[in-house]
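Structure tokens please, single chain.
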Amino acid sequence: MIASLNKLLFNLMLLPILVTISLAAPLANNQLVFLVKVGSDSSGNPLMRVADSSEANLSQLYNRISRDQGVQKVVASHQAEQLKSFQAVTPAGMHNQRQADPVFIEVGSQTGTYNDWKGSFTIVDANNQQYRYDQSRVVVDLNDSMFRAKDPTLVEQNFVHEIGHGIMRQTYGKDNLPTTPWLGRPHYGDLVTDEALGIIEGWAEFVGAYFTGRNTIAEDPAEAIMQNAYAYTDKGTPKSPADLMKTEGWVATVLLWMAKHPSIPNAYEKMLTVMREGKFNNLNDMLRAMIAKYPESGDAIGEILGKASLNQFKSPLGEAVQVTPVTPPPAVDVATGVGGNVDSDLTKMFDDYQSSMNTLAQLKLDLINIDRYANAHWQEIQRRISFQESLVASLESRVKAELKIKTGLANQEKIAQALLDNMEKIRLQHNQLLQQYNASSWWDQSKRSKIQAELALYQELYNRSKSMADSTDPATMIAVWNQRQSRIQYRLQQVGQVAAAPGSSSESCLGQNCGEAYHKLIGAIEANNRAEAQKQLKDFSDTKVNR
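Here you go.
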């Protein structure tokens, strides 16, 4: 008969007392158990031992993961779903007496990172007693690239993602899980695969974002889910409705927007309920069931689908779902007005565009100067550039369209200021780099080639900023330009007053005191400090008169 996990954990904790107090502690509690593979059992299933604190790298990872709030929350959800599955097979009128199992995590190397959601395994203790589990387990490869990533939250999100697959196993049951030939094949957020993998990986990507607050997938740009980045092709055009359902990143987007929508309270628990009842192989059927069971959420889901599909459809595909009419909930995006003259959505969209452009520029600079980074792979940088290009292209077209529609808004002035600032900075950086190029030795072709590539990048950035500026309200842009010119004219007038100061019409200022006064004056003008400029102008004039 299979012994219980509680007995296993008790034996593991008692063993140090019985043998010697110097033995290491097991990396196990009622929520998480770290395992190390030692072979195979008599049935050919993996044979595991519980890792212990003498393995420093595993102990450090265990302490880090077990304390992470996102991991704690997803483990709690995993155990709650397991208890519901136990209750479902408990005879009517009786209560389930079983406790939920912890989440098992096999840690190794050269294994790949995945969730063995249909597998079985056996744990052996120090007394050679075996405990068999027909349960999913997370397999973690310590050589996986996520452990070398610069973003420390990526590791936690990866654990939460894999545990998310285990939650699907609990809600569907081992024999009812979706199947697809795509399982085990490479995939990523914006890849079009099939509807089954879309819901399998989309659900896990959603869980990873929902419990960690890291609203992106793997090493994709920050907030890619909230920016609806996965709705676009590599060319920046909208994906078809069919392809959206086959894109795991887009499925995660819809689910996360639902979970965050104020008009769908307890959305996460409602999703689990319909998944448990329907065991769906695609997002479309899941949404139809969600609307049928919770008709009060229908309008909000339609609104989310409209936004996420770029207005291609606003209800699940197929025949209409019969729902009871309800009062429309608040919109996902509502323009907020300050005196009726500000649109916060426009500002946020422009900020997203600015952020995405900055990321794209940095990626391209990294590719140009890839030799500065140890163990860098140009193919990975190029892949991320392609993704970022599509994101920037889609945001660029949307911002331009909104700028042309929403003329006369106060925040158009701020956007115009930002664009002119961008162009001024780019011109400055371009000219400084051009000076470096002209000063470089002609035989240093490597350096000159890099500078030429960076010059071309700055030219591209300038042209894109110029194109965006051309899309703003012309009257607003002219007004902002005139403001900037007025400031320049003011500074020039101050310098002109210096030139026309008493005693200066035909004389040169060559004395040390006079020179110091002049530089202080110029500094005050550049700092736009009017009071200080007037004081320094008087001091300079006095110095000229008293020469």
